[in-house]
Amino acid sequence: MADQSVSQIFSAIADTAPAVRAALPGRRVEYGGENPSGESQLAADVYADSLFKDRLEQVDAVGTYFSEEEESAVAVGDGSLTVAIDPLDGSSNLKSNNALGTIVSVYDEPLPASGDSLIAAGYVLYGPITTMVVAHDGVVTESVLTDGNQEVVKDDLTLPSEPTIYGFGGRIPDWTPEFTEYAREIESEFKLRYGGSMVGDVNQVLTYGGIFSYPAVKSAPDGKLRTQFEAHPMAYIVEAAGGKSSDGTQSILDRTPTEVHERTPVHLGNDELIDRLESSL
Ligand code: AFP
């Protein structure tokens, strides 16, 4: 039953993603509003949110839709599942025409909820091609999405065992001394890949092996990224692909936020690099 529900949810995401992508060129302008995290919204953020909500409303298993762009949950049906979504993550990349994505979490509890309540998570990457990565039951699959078509290209995606890249967010002067020291070591061993969109940056880690961090910074001790909408789902995916996640001390999936738009430091990647990070912080 859960398998069928998860597959219906991600079919709905795959069906909607081409329309979201097609709408981007005309929606690079500011919408005039702010999301609940205080960030200004682009017309594309608001439009993507409405497209996903309308489509997920048609999936029987979904009872609640909770978007990063909205203050509170929206009841969309009688189903027992909650879909949390960041409809357009990295939307500031739209101005410079760089990668962006959609992040989707499927919880079997109302939010705020612990990462243990996730039953699936996935993302769409709007890169040169549109791909969708979905984690469920410990298996990660990658598909290529073209209009109306979903072609699985990897049916058991795992993190490469020899990591080669890293991507760290936040301004270097804002990093803590402990994270700065860790970063200096990592910089001497691996190649920098950072694009400012979590989906694009984590996708690179899944492709090449390595580590993505958006650490606690002096001005924002809880980091920048949202637990329910960004950190939990990406941690779920990376752990299902054989890697590790950490908020600096524990798996991100062990975190239960007290409010839905709460933030957390995020570290995702190969086991050895996350272990080293936790002993450095
Ligand atoms: P936007 O959606 O405002 O572009 O933010 C994207 C994001 O939440 C996440 O996708 C990135 O990893 C992170 O912020 C990038 O933050 P910096 O701009 O500080 O590098």
From TrEMBL:
<dbReference type="Pfam" id="PF18913">
    <property type="entry name" value="FBPase_C"/>
</dbReference>
<feature type="binding site">
    <location>
        <position position="89"/>
    </location>
    <ligand>
        <name>Mg(2+) 2</name>
    </ligand>
</feature>
<feature type="binding site">
    <location>
        <position position="86"/>
    </location>
    <ligand>
        <name>Mg(2+) 2</name>
    </ligand>
</feature>
<dbReference type="InterPro" id="IPR000146">
    <property type="entry name" value="FBPase_class-1"/>
</dbReference>
<feature type="domain" description="Fructose-1-6-bisphosphatase class 1 C-terminal">
    <location>
        <begin position="159"/>
        <end position="279"/>
    </location>
</feature>
<dbReference type="InterPro" id="IPR033391">
    <property type="entry name" value="FBPase_N"/>
</dbReference>
<dbReference type="InterPro" id="IPR028343">
    <property type="entry name" value="FBPtase"/>
</dbReference>
<keyword id="KW-0119">Carbohydrate metabolism</keyword>
<dbReference type="GO" id="GO:0000287">
    <property type="term" value="F:magnesium ion binding"/>
</dbReference>
<feature type="binding site">
    <location>
        <position position="88"/>
    </location>
    <ligand>
        <name>Mg(2+) 1</name>
    </ligand>
</feature>
<feature type="domain" description="Fructose-1-6-bisphosphatase class I N-terminal">
    <location>
        <begin position="32"/>
        <end position="144"/>
    </location>
</feature>
<comment type="subunit">
    <text>Homotetramer.</text>
</comment>
<keyword id="KW-0479">Metal-binding</keyword>
<dbReference type="GO" id="GO:0005986">
    <property type="term" value="P:sucrose biosynthetic process"/>
</dbReference>
<dbReference type="InterPro" id="IPR044015">
    <property type="entry name" value="FBPase_C_dom"/>
</dbReference>
<keyword id="KW-0963">Cytoplasm</keyword>
<keyword id="KW-0378">Hydrolase</keyword>
<dbReference type="Pfam" id="PF00316">
    <property type="entry name" value="FBPase"/>
</dbReference>
<feature type="binding site">
    <location>
        <position position="224"/>
    </location>
    <ligand>
        <name>substrate</name>
    </ligand>
</feature>
<feature type="binding site">
    <location>
        <position position="230"/>
    </location>
    <ligand>
        <name>Mg(2+) 2</name>
    </ligand>
</feature>
<dbReference type="GO" id="GO:0006094">
    <property type="term" value="P:gluconeogenesis"/>
</dbReference>
<feature type="binding site">
    <location>
        <position position="86"/>
    </location>
    <ligand>
        <name>Mg(2+) 1</name>
    </ligand>
</feature>
<protein>
    <recommendedName>
        <fullName>Fructose-1,6-bisphosphatase class 1</fullName>
        <ecNumber>3.1.3.11</ecNumber>
    </recommendedName>
</protein>
<comment type="similarity">
    <text>Belongs to the FBPase class 1 family.</text>
</comment>
<feature type="binding site">
    <location>
        <position position="194"/>
    </location>
    <ligand>
        <name>substrate</name>
    </ligand>
</feature>
<dbReference type="GO" id="GO:0030388">
    <property type="term" value="P:fructose 1,6-bisphosphate metabolic process"/>
</dbReference>
<feature type="binding site">
    <location>
        <position position="68"/>
    </location>
    <ligand>
        <name>Mg(2+) 1</name>
    </ligand>
</feature>
<dbReference type="GO" id="GO:0006002">
    <property type="term" value="P:fructose 6-phosphate metabolic process"/>
</dbReference>
<dbReference type="GO" id="GO:0005737">
    <property type="term" value="C:cytoplasm"/>
</dbReference>
<dbReference type="GO" id="GO:0006000">
    <property type="term" value="P:fructose metabolic process"/>
</dbReference>
<comment type="pathway">
    <text>Carbohydrate biosynthesis.</text>
</comment>
<dbReference type="GO" id="GO:0042132">
    <property type="term" value="F:fructose 1,6-bisphosphate 1-phosphatase activity"/>
</dbReference>
<keyword id="KW-0460">Magnesium</keyword>
<feature type="binding site">
    <location>
        <begin position="89"/>
        <end position="92"/>
    </location>
    <ligand>
        <name>substrate</name>
    </ligand>
</feature>
